[in-house]
C-alpha cells in the first residue's frame, strides 16, 4: 500500500522531528513517510536534521508575505507540489488560520507540552508552558497530541501522557523530562495512527 505523505512543520531544534525520523528508520512509523520538512525560519536546526537524512525542506517565513492569506496560499502550494496528505506540527511556532486548517480536516496533528486543557491556547508555547506549570505548582504535567482545527490547541485529543513534576525543577529540566518521557513517544505513535487511517481511506 502507498504510504501517506507527511509534511513536518518545525521552527526550532527539531527533537520531535528527530523522533519521527527515528521511528521511520526503526519501522514503528511505517504507514507514512516524511516527504517534506517545512520551517518557519531559515535558522531552525531542524533543517539540518532534515538535510542529514535526505528529506527535502522548504522555508516559508510569515513576515515575508503581505498577509496571512498570501502566506497560507504559498504553504498550500508547496504542500501540493510534494503531494502532502498529512501535516505534523512538531514545535511549529507560526499561527495557522482557519483558512489553512479547514483545507486539511483531520489531517493536521500537533504536539503540545502539557496535559490539555491545562496551560494551552494563545501564548502557551515552548518553555512558557513549563514556566506556567511550575508557577501554578502542579505536581503532574505531560504532553498531548491533538488534531488541529481553528481553535488554538482546541482540536480533538488523540493521545496524552502524564509526567511527574519534581522538587526543584527548572523550566528547562521539566521541558526535557516531558520531551523524553512523553513527546518523543507520543508523536511518532499518533503520527502512525493517523497515517494508517488515511492510508486505509485511499
Ligand atoms: C516541544 O516541546 C513542543 O511540544 C513545543 O515546542 C517544543 C519544540 O521542540 N510545542 C509547542 O509549544 C506548541 N504550542 P523541538 O523543536 O525540539 O521538537
Report on the architecture of this protein:
By secondary structure, the chain is α/β, with parallel strands linked by helices. The chain contains 6 helices and 7 strands; from the N terminus they run βαβαβαβαβαββα. It has a 7-stranded mixed beta sheet with strand order 3-2-1-4-5-6-7, covered by helices on one side. The radius of gyration is 16 Å and the shape is globular. Bound molecules: glycinamide ribonucleotide. Glycinamide ribonucleotide (GAR) binds next to α1, β5 and α6.
Question: Which descriptors apply to this entry?
Answer:
202 residues; alpha/beta; 7-stranded mixed beta sheet; 6 helices; 38% helix; binds glycinamide ribonucleotide
Spell out which ligands are present: glycinamide ribonucleotide
Largest sheet strand order: 3-2-1-4-5-6-7
- By DSSP, the count of extended strands is 7
Return the structural class. alpha/beta
Question: Taking Cα atoms only, what radius of gyration do you get, to the nearest Å?
Answer: 16 Å
Report on the biggest sheet.
Answer: 7 strands, mixed
Outline:
globular
Low-confidence stretches: none
Helical residue percent band:
25-40%
The secondary-structure element order is EHEHEHEHEHEEH
Average pLDDT works out at 97
* Gap from first CA to last CA: 9 Å
How much of the sequence is in beta strands?
15-25%
The total of helices stands at: 6
Write the layout of secondary structure elements.
Elements: E1 4-10, H1 15-26, E2 32-39, H2 46-52, E3 57-59, H3 68-81, E4 86-89, H4 98-101, E5 108-112, H5 127-136, E6 140-147, E7 157-164, H6 171-200
Parallel strand pairs: 1-2, 1-4, 2-3, 4-5
Antiparallel strand pairs: 5-6, 6-7
Amino acid at each position: 500500500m502507498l504510504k501517506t505523505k507527511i509534511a513536518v512543520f518545525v521552527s526550532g531544534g527539531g527533537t520531535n522531528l528527530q523522533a519521527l525520523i527515528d521511528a521511520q528508520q526503526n519501522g514503528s512509523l511505517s504507514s507514512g513517510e516524511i516527504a517534506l520538512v517545512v520551517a518557519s525560519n531559515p535558522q531552525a536546526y531542524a533543517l539540518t536534521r532534515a538535510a542529514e537524512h535526505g528529506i527535502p525542506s522548504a522555508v516559508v517565513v510569515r513576515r515575508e508575505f503581505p498577509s496571512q492569506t498570501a502566506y497560507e496560499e504559498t504553504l498550500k502550494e508547496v504542500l501540493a507540489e510534494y503531494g502532502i496528505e498529512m501535516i505534523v506540527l512538531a514545535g511549529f511556532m507560526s499561527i495557522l488560520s482557519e483558512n489553512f486548517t479547514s483545507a486539511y480536516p483531520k489531517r493536521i496533528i500537533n504536539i503540545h507540552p502539557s496535559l490539555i486543557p491545562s496551560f494551552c491556547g494563545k501564548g502557551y508555547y515552548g518553555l512558557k508552558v513549563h514556566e506556567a506549570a511550575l508557577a501554578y505548582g502542579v505536581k503532574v504535567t505531560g504532553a498531548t497530541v491533538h488534531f488541529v482545527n481553528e481553535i488554538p490547541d482546541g482540536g480533538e485529543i488523540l493521545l496524552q501522557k502524564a509526567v511527574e513534576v519534581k522538587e526543584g525543577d527548572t523550566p528547562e529540566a521539566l521541558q526535557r523530562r516531558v520531551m523524553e518521557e512523553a513527546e518523543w513517544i507520543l508523536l511518532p505513535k499518533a503520527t502512525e495512527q493517523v497515517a494508517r487511517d488515511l492510508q486505509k481511506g485511499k
